[in-house]
Amino acid sequence: METPTENRKIEIDPEILDHLNSTRKWTTFLAILGFIFLGLILIAGLATSFFLSTFKTTEANMGIPESIIILLIIIVGFIYFFPVFFLLRFSRNMRDAIQNLDQKKLLKGFRNLRLYFTYIGILVIVVLTIYALGLLFAGASMSFLKGV
Length: 148
Hints:
- By secondary structure, this protein is mainly α.
- The chain has one domain.
- It is 81% helix and 0% strand.
- It contains four helices and no strands.
- It has helices at 4-7, 14-54, 66-100, 103-142.
- Helix 2 packs antiparallel against helix 3 (66-100) and helix 3 runs antiparallel to helix 4.
- The longest helix is centred in the N-terminal third of the chain and has 41 residues, at 14-54.
- The protein is elongated, with a radius of gyration of 23 Å.
- The N and C termini lie far apart (77 Å).
């Protein structure tokens, strides 16, 4: 006996292809802007490391080592790279799929779109958890304050 999914197929008509092409153009634009912003983050990191090491004096102590600031900028750039990369791969695969009517490229494009949203979703969960823990610790530290 056939399963219900074996007989059913989704057809992509020209109107859907037009919408996908329009979406592809916007995701390409956003991916390019993302890589430009990523480059600016890395340039800011290099400039920060240069200025902190050049103008380091004993009087101006920031309280944390300069290497931690540089490391944080590199980590932010590393975290930011993957969603932009997945978005660009979605755009390129979608372009190839639309131009050549290639089912495999369409599958790869949607796989990259799924990876993009999965990554963003996990990132949102992590950030919300950090915010919740920060609020929890801030509330706990308020209990140690004396009445002002």
